[in-house]
Design goal:
Layout: H1 2-68, H2 72-75, H3 82-93, H4 104-117, E1 130-134, E2 145-149, E3 154-161, H5 170-178, E4 184-191, E5 204-207, H6 212-221, H7 225-241, H8 252-259, H9 261-287, E6 297-302, E7 305-310, E8 314-315, E9 318-326, E10 332-340, H10 342-359, E11 369-370, E12 378-385, H11 393-421
Parallel strand pairs: 3-4, 4-5
Antiparallel strand pairs: 1-2, 2-3, 6-7, 7-9, 8-9, 9-10, 10-12, 11-12
Helix pairs in contact: 6-7, 9-11, 10-11
Length: 422
Amino acid sequence: MEALEVIRSELRDLKSKLHVIDEKEAIETELMLRDLKSCVSRIEKKELDENGAMLHNLAIDVINVEKTEFSFLKIFGIENNELVHSNFLAWLLDPLESHRLGSRFVEEFLRRVAARTGYLDSSSLDFSNLKVDREITGDESRLDIRIWDSRGSFQCVIENKILSGEGADQTDRLYRTFHGKSSQELYVFLSLDETTKPKNGIFKSLPYKEVLPILQSLLQDSPDADTRFLIRNYVNTLERLVVSENFEGFSERTKLYYKYQKCIDDVRKAFDQDRKLILKTLEDGIKQRPWWNSDLWDMLVTGGSVCIWKKTWYKNDDGVYLLAEASTGRPAYHLFVFGEPSQFSEKFAPVFKRLLDQEHPEKVPGGFSKTFARGVTRFIQKDVQLSLVGKDQPHELLKNLDEMLQIFEKTIDKSIAEFRKK
């Protein structure tokens, strides 16, 4: 019994010592956590201050670069618009236009085509007699640009492509429509992407990168300051759009990226994370809408967009979709009604437009706009501005999706039904 009491007494002493040790460790741990929190706060503040300073410096450097890359096409958001490029090129190609270049551009353009294709004897042309047309409509198709002379001895038909591909049977229809109108004919397929080839072999491919040197040479030759300014702007646009095959040195923007890489990557990660969260919230919200029924609707969330479509709208790998697409350039989402692929879209568009015009002959309600221009697969569009400080962004997007369905669902149903019957 005496031995047992001794053991009990030692256990009580041990428990007391352990309690003291636990309290001490708890206090030490708490102090360490406080120190760690303080250190992290200092580090985060320092990093935020450094990132803020870097962003400020980056903004200044970007402004300096943009001064040398200034382009009114970029400012107006039209640098990918084929009509704009065609209009500008047609203006330069016309010897009688106000650029005061005479026939310099059209001569060099046709000589370059001739040298590339071996298909034209440009020495026989009277450049002073050439005329330029835009958007001429024929029996089966409409051309982008035509260079011709009034004597009927020459015509050059140009199909211009910026980002879109060739429509269904497009170059074949162009050739059938305009062939035989001149004794000497040339058909040119002008494209940003050199790998994009025309389906009709009569058309000769000409990449924009071969037009760029002609424009650059005009900067030295043009006698008119306004013309030089316009060409300089257009050259800046093409230099961004045309990807050089051979590396000739890092661009100024690439140098800025490496200089501010950590800062840029941190900001980009924050944007990507927020975009994922808003898309996930939007996906969950769509599934809770009163009109949603998984037997009737399908949905795909990918990249920066949410795409939904009625199963009756989709058939044989083509159809009509509704899309909410995140913008990386500004705090906005773009809403679209679009068709895919382009072969389906081109045939479906007239049916949808006719029925839509019957429903809304003047203006589409809800701030939506019609975009039935040739080669455009997005029939309806609307920008939804997002507030960087607001917390109801998914709710705002869902309201606009509801409105999109309310306005267009029945018209799409009717259009699809009529189109499928054909």
